[in-house]
Amino acid sequence: MACLHCFLGFLLLAARLPLDAARRFHDVLSNERTSGYTREHSQLTGWSSDENEWNEKLYPVWKKEDPRWKNSWRGGHVQAILTSDSPALVGSTITFVVDLVFPRCQKEDVNGNIVYENNCRNDTDPSPDLYVYNWTEESGWGNDHSQDHHHVFPDGKPFPHHPGWRRCSFVYVFHTLGQYLQKLGRGSARVSINTANVTLGPQLMEVIVYRRHHHVYVPIAKVKDVYVVTDHVPVFVTMYQKNDRNLSDETFLRDIPIMFSVLIHDPSHFLNESAINYKWNFGDNTGLFVSNNPTLNHTYVLNGTFSLNLTVQAAVPGPCPSP
């Protein structure tokens, strides 16, 4: 009986090996995290755990120094530019945008194909408007319904069949906080996340982009960027004085009003329904001024250097706590 137990144990171990060896999303997208990272963050709506398996057969994974990157795109290299409207006030929505920059003289046409720009090719080229990638002709993407099993993301989920989806030639995989989001798109992709349960401070967003190639996909670009979630209202103050010839030197004349204006960085309009108060201390012993107006005039009557102290308070409406 002891031998039987040993044999069964061996079978279980052997059965686990392929599963343990499978590549997972966090292996592909980032190694800059510690064990249990996902559990430290709340689930983002619509996102999935990066512990899921990655289909490497359909979406090959190349290391940074892999020579195949040199031939991942015809006529040069594609650059991915990742931007966001960070910093984001906790509870607001932050938006990320990835734009693909194609090699010189290449552009995306209205059908999602990549073409050469008119009058931007060498004289030896037979046509001023040849395709770089004619996705439909090269892969049968638009007509071959028998190949729908290739129309899936790296985790196996099928592509959403929204109108015009067959004109989307790129697959974007966004990764942050131990979670990922897959998106089918064209030369640009946009995603937004709510920061209500995101840890304060700097966080990392990473994106990998694949292009179609017959019935598989080819990596063409990777990019990452840091974004910030904060519990302090992001503000910027401008100062203006009539007839001031140099607004950038922050030098003003006494006895002439200076207009101070507060600009709040709130691209998702999270604070639209909030009551916002501004507390001004102009550093000249004139006291504290409280206002609900983001613009205030102040006149300095003495020469000197003064430090402005501004406090912005926003009361965000929300559900009342349980008694």
Present the secondary structure layout.
Layout: H1 2-21, H2 25-29, E1 48-49, E2 79-84, E3 88-89, E4 93-101, E5 106-108, E6 114-116, E7 131-133, H3 135-139, E8 170-176, E9 179-185, E10 188-194, E11 201-213, E12 216-230, E13 235-241, E14 258-264, E15 275-281, E16 288-291, E17 295-298, E18 309-315
- Molecular shape: elongated
Proper CATH architecture of the largest domain: Sandwich
Number of domains: 2
Global Rg:
28 Å
Write down the overall mean pLDDT: 85
Straight-line N-to-C gap: 61 Å
Strand content: 25-35%
The CATH class of the largest domain is identified as Mainly Beta
Low-confidence stretches: 1-19
Looking at this protein, list some descriptive labels.
Immunoglobulin-like, three-stranded antiparallel β-sheet, 18 strands, mainly beta, six-stranded mixed β-sheet, disordered N terminus, 9% helix, 323 residues, 35% strand
Would you kindly provide a written description of the structure presented here, covering whatever features stand out?
Residues 1-22 form the signal peptide. It is found in: Early endosome membrane; Melanosome membrane. With 323 residues, this protein is mainly beta. It has two domains: 20-230, Immunoglobulins (Immunoglobulin-like, Sandwich); 235-315, Immunoglobulin-like. It is 9% helix and 35% strand. It contains three helices and 18 strands. The longest helix has 20 residues, at 2-21. It is elongated. The protein starts with a helix and ends in an 8-residue tail after the last strand. The model is unreliable at 1-19 (pLDDT under 50).
